[in-house]
Amino acid sequence: MTLKAFLREEKHLSRKLLAEIKFQGGSLFINGREVTVREKVFEGDHIEVVLPPERISEKIKKTNLALQVIYEDDHLLVINKPANLVTIPTHDSHEPSLAGAVLQHYENNGWRATFHAVNRLDRDTTGLVIIAKHRYAHEKLAMQQRSGKLEREYKAVVHGLVPWQFGSIHARIARKPTSIIERSVSAKGQQAVTHFETVDATHRYSILTLRLETGRTHQIRVHMAWLGYPLVGDTLYGSPSSDHERMMLHSYKAVFYHPFTGEQRCFSAPLPSIYGSLFTRT
Length: 282
Hints:
By secondary structure, the chain is α+β, with helices and mostly antiparallel strands. Among the domains are: 3-50, no CATH class; 153-250, Pseudouridine synthase (2-Layer Sandwich). It has six helices and 15 strands. Strands 4, 5, 6, 7, 8, 9, 12, 13, 14 and 15 form a ten-stranded mixed β-sheet that branches.
């Protein structure tokens, strides 16, 4: 087959990435000889793909923040994100972001790439953020996410005693017509499925493990509020403002296949100690 067919069908390079390799400074080699995508490939050939240099966004302000790195290699970076930190920069250019901290981390370690977030967390949500260290890794991980092969699990503390040990919420989510931020359950929205298990409870709170089948904006927050059990500290979706200083949602587990070795990897981030303190209150 042609090199183009091999890279598209067997290695899942997108048309966009192949065009960037051609027009933005990348290269293709077969057995050490530079070629075009029209070259034929045969069993036993050694194929090398040189990605074009990445343009680092000037809109992301680099920030010196101590990152809790769970895992890192030449393709992946898995971070345990703290609370009160946005993933992507806001309109406030002075506000630090996880993206800015990662770019600073790259600069400190001589890695030239821009920020490729595979998943994003809200400002007050803590836990695992998966970051691809180049555009090809991002494509392959995004493909896993779309096909359901990238699994994410969360821990949440909600108001009230959830009466079910296990449950699944199938409720479409759309942007609320009166807000540019808030979402709501709507028959006109996108399909959204959340599975949950109640793992601990008191007369005031329940701790849930939640697994996302889809990845809609604010999905867990919207679904639990709609069910009548809003997240503790989530004032946008019904938690009393005086209840707690921040939202109690933690991305604690991620399972996916390494985009190049094919090995299934499982990463976890321990619950912040503040979760336990809620259950010591009377």
